[in-house]
């Protein structure tokens, strides 16, 4: 696990660099896209590179991490809509190459199984962008999630619904109670995981993710078992890292050819 502590704009550039390097090497790469506020600066930077530097997503494919259950197709907070707004509509990614779990399916377990199969048929995810919840969830794998889980329906915790109420005019009751989410094992199958966390509110979750014991209580800790994880954090989110000094020193001395 590589931990990079840097200012927010630098974090977005580093994540965008990783995406760009992948797309240049493999134009038909499979991207794993995250919602929430953490990756927004990355999408801004990717959109800028597309407009100004010709970075192309024309042959890329993408899978979202998760989706709310029951939000109408035209709801602005439906994750598929959010990704269309924040990234797809701003680059040349083909809308039909972007997939999300179907939170409106009549048969939700079947939709989850179909999603797993679609990821598998695409050859798996090459680079997965991730955020982290204040309670240590990744995607919507809330505390208590099986570390071996696959895409399935989950109940959101009150904490997550409160955290996400800001996207629903502050109304926690408007936040759906259920979601479909890639499981922890699904996420762990991606070849490179790039997690971004900023702000003091994430400090405890980041400490657990990087330095805590692997436990379903802090689902993100399963990432410690992945061979290629990049954790991008600002000073505030790094505030509780015990070995922060070591991570800074390691990154400062890293040869440029090594990349993330
Ligand atoms: C949501 C999403 C996660 C995201 C997390 C943190 O619940 N399902 O994918 O990582 O919240 O969100 P934010 O980046 O807005 O803090």
UniProtKB/TrEMBL annotation:
E.C. code: 3.5.99.6
Catalysed transformations (reactions): alpha-D-glucosamine 6-phosphate + H2O = beta-D-fructose 6-phosphate + NH4(+)
Gene3D superfamilies: 3.40.50.1360
InterPro entries linked: Glc/Gal-6P_isomerase (IPR006148), Glucosamine6P_isomerase (IPR004547), Glucosamine6P_isomerase_CS (IPR018321), NagB/RpiA_transferase-like (IPR037171)
Coiled-coil segments on the chain, per record: none
Top enzyme class: hydrolase
Domain (Glucosamine/galactosamine-6-phosphate isomerase): residue spans on this chain: 10-224
Site residues (Part of the allosteric site), renumbered to this chain: 145, 152, 154-155
Known regulation of activity: Allosterically activated by N-acetylglucosamine 6-phosphate (GlcNAc6P).
Residues of the active site: 66 (proton acceptor), 135 (for ring-opening step), 137 (proton acceptor), 142 (for ring-opening step)
Record key words, sorted: Allosteric enzyme, Carbohydrate metabolism, Hydrolase
Protein family membership: Belongs to the glucosamine/galactosamine-6-phosphate isomerase family. NagB subfamily.
Function: Catalyzes the reversible isomerization-deamination of glucosamine 6-phosphate (GlcN6P) to form fructose 6-phosphate (Fru6P) and ammonium ion.
Name the UniProt record assigns to this protein: Glucosamine-6-phosphate deaminase
Organism expressing this protein natively: Cellulomonas phragmiteti
Gene it is expressed from: nagB
